[in-house]
Amino acid sequence: MNQRVVLVVNGQSKTLDLTSEASLLQVLRNDFLLNSPKYGCGLGECGSCTVLVDGQATRSCVVPATQVEQRRITTLEGLSFAGAIHPIQQAFIEQQAAQCGYCLSGMIMMTVSLLMRNPNPELEQIKNELSGNLCRCGTHIEILRAVKRAIELCSSSSPDDLFKPLTCDLN
Known about the structure:
The chain is an alpha+beta fold. About 35% of the residues lie in helices and about 15% in strands.
């Protein structure tokens, strides 16, 4: 049985008829045509499907889309603002923190979630936060360097500017 649901993704609202089994990941990829959240394990354990729901890192493969109605969903595509990439994306580019790129979106979204809660985390906090996101290519050192660089870039931004894409008016 289908249920009419209004989802707000990257500031855009869309009304969909969904089954209760449709995962947020399926809807993001199939209905919103977004490529950044990836299907990895399908169990919420690898982190490749991580998005933000009301600013909280969320494994979209295990969340029914019907449960996030009218909540603010942000994917990697939603981080850019006014044509500019987000400072955290810039840090990952500068540090060449990707090889195949499959985990990259999840790593970046976890970093955004962490820095929203703690703008200056210690290395152990960063490692702990990212420990649930798997990288099969072995770019862990570059990813940690990218998070440290993101902290530097974000500290030079005013708090109002840093997360504009995440706090902009969605109405």
